[in-house]
Amino acid sequence: MHYAYPSRKNSNPPRYLPRTSRLPTLRRRHLKPIALFGLGILALVWFLSSGGSRTGSERKISGKPPVVLVTVFEEKSDNAEYIRNIKDNRSQYAEKHGYGTLFAEVGDYDLGGSPASWSKVVATRHAMTKYPDAKYIWYLDQDSLIMNPRLKVEEYVMGTSRLEDIMIRDLPVVPPDSIIKTFSNMKGDDVSLVITQDKDGLAVGSFIVRNGEWAKFFLDTWYDPLYRSYNFQKAEMHTLEHIVQWHPTVLSRLAILPQRAINAYSRPDRGEQYKDGDIAVRFAHCRGTGEKSCAKEAERFSYQWRTSFNSH
After folding, report:
1. Residue % of the chain over a pLDDT of 90
2. For the chain, which domains are there?
3. Which of 28, 37, 115, 270 is in Cβ range 3.0-4.6 Å of 235 for a Cys bridge?
């Protein structure tokens, strides 16, 4: 069984100090659990007041553009050509389908001392502000390439019938044996967050959110300072695993897809390996230098994506 956070948190307990008052100690001990309980109550109130689904009172989104691609780049990169290749890949795909793009750098956001990987959450929220009428936001990590220009996100991934065909129901949300599982009766129209799993757990390098009030709530909850203060071992990844297990408001809108749907890997050691025809490939856990560097991994696929894009 997976526990929500104690087993995945780096802990450095303070030295024992004599207590002068039992009440302050109790307050310190229960402060964070009480705060987490409060967040859960607020989420439940929101869930009940919204009827657990999209309502007619929510602002209608025109779907222009239908999708926004979001990628956060490292500020310092030893390979400018590699970065240009990634940006060119996103731009060509977006131009072909009339999508928007948001390219950001880690330094664009004040993360309050949190690890740089949290910038993906802030950038996705930023995209919703910049493109308020976009229907979907697809966050895709820097170390990845879109490979199939024919596939549209709104159809191939987020289409109602497509989601109902491929979403994995009754699946432990944190592998291998979380007692919390994806809903067995989920409908495609109810899905607002799409993600995959790899051998480590929820794979946050590629995910899609349906724009709207729920997405704002979700991203703001994910980035909540209280969760970031827990210093989870894998930062935003373990925070998300905690949220989907403890908050039905999030779980009720979550669909976990087969990994290759949006998140195939260039090598099989961490998850499902890319095959021709998949929408994208990620160089998961690639390195800065050497034969397994991100730039070297990209070389294996760059000619292929450019040839494919030029032929369609």
Report:
1. 70
2. 67-310 (3.90.550.10)
3. 115
